[in-house]
Amino acid sequence: MSGQFVIKFKFFWDDADHALERWLEQMAHQGLHLYKVDCMRCRFVFKRGEPADITYRLDFQVRRMATDHVQLFTDAGWERVDQSFGWQVWRAPTRAGCTPEIFTDTASRVRKYQRLLWLFAFAAAVGLVQLSRRGTDSLWDTPAHIAMTLGVIAMFIYPVVRLLRRIRSLRNPVP
Residue 142 contacts by C-beta under 8 Å, 6 or more apart in sequence? Predict the structure, then answer.
């Protein structure tokens, strides 16, 4: 890649889409505009340009987005920048200080996190079944096996708990 592209590595939990959106907006203010997302949303390729006031929003879809759904977003002024492992990254210019939204109601926001929650729950179930079927070696034989097993379980449970909390906070906002 030439000097017009900048690569940055950053990790965000799946329920921290708001933090990722703010970070992408800060990059746009610095003249770095998202070009591509790789490696499970950890590697970001930016294209250098003029600093701009851009709003980024993320959507999560388990299935491939239907053409009419993409067209609906496009007609509303959104540009799909990239997609990675179900995450759709959209951007639109911020106009007159008004931040556009792709989801205008709480129910739509909740459904986004529920789709993600079911994906994590499914992955956790598959992972736990795989851990229990490891053959004749017991996962509880050594301290290293115990630590590894508990670490894997925690990596499944942590995002589920965070997503459940996010859904609850959307349904019951604090005044």
Answer: none
Confidence of residue 132 (pLDDT cuts 50, 70, 90): low
The pTM score is: 0.80
Q: Calculate the alpha carbon distances from 170 to 42, 74, 110, 164 in Å.
A: 26, 26, 7, 10
Q: HSE of 9 in the Cβ direction (CA atoms, 13 Å)? A: 1
pLDDT of residue 160: 86
**Pairwise CA distance, residues 55 & 6, whole Å:** 19
Question: Would you tell me how many other CB atoms lie within 10 Å of the CB of residue 122?
Answer: 11
Amino acid identity for residue 2 in this structure: S
Give one word for 122, left, alpha or beta, with left for phi > 0 and alpha for psi -120 to 50.
Answer: alpha
User: CB–CB of 55/25 below 8 Å?
Assistant: yes
Residue environment code for 97-117, b if the CB has 16+ CB neighbours within 10 A, otherwise e: eeebebeeeeeebbebbeebb
Rounded distance between C-alpha atoms, residue 146 and residue 162, angstroms:
24
For residues 137 and 146, give the distance between their C-alpha atoms in angstroms, rounded to a whole number: 12
Backbone angles phi, psi at 140, to 5 degrees: -110, 20
- Top pLDDT among 141 and 28 is at 28
Amino acid identity, residue 37?
Answer: V
Mean of all residue pLDDT scores within the chain: 84
